[in-house]
Design brief:
This protein has one domain: 2-Layer Sandwich (Alpha-Beta Plaits), CATH 3.30.70. Helices cover 20% and strands 36% of the residues. The chain is built from 2 helices and 6 strands; from the N terminus they run βαββββαβ. The strands form 2 sheets. A 4-stranded antiparallel β-sheet has the order 2-5-1-6, with helices on one face. The N and C termini lie close together (9 Å). It is an alpha+beta fold.
Length: 112
């Protein structure tokens, strides 16, 4: 099993969710986050005063999938979330040792 963590632009969330559902992903966790990287924030003017926005709003997706699906999921997220502009996001893939469905006690692949 693999844990896929992806950060994407917020307006791409629904499009990515639909694309993942089409390839058979059954669930994911979504968190609204703020971060900075190459994009490194920007300045805005509010009521005549200029101020720095150092953290940019993003959405973090977390999915646990069977190892044989991981490449397809990464490819789907990459294609769907890409705008070609700075700040499109990052994807990390980690190994998962165990998964347990709390309601039924099912483990590993059955718990997904």
């Amino acid at each position: 099993m693999k844990l896929i963590i992806a950060t994407i632009k917020p307006f791409k969330l629904e499009e990515v969710r639909e694309a993942l559902t089409e390839i058979g992903v059954r669930g994911m966790m979504v968190t609204e986050i703020k971060g900075f990287g190459s994009q490194s924030g920007h300045t805005e003017i509010y009521r005549g005063a200029e101020y720095a926005v150092n953290f940019v709003p993003k959405v973090k997706l977390e999915l646990v999938v069977a190892a044989n699906m991981a490449d397809q999921v990464v490819e789907t997220i990459t294609k769907t979330a890409q705008t070609g502009k700075i700040g499109d996001g990052k994807i990390f893939v980690l190994d998962v040792q165990q998964a347990i469905r709390v309601r039924t006690g099912e483990t590993d692949a059955d718990a997904l």
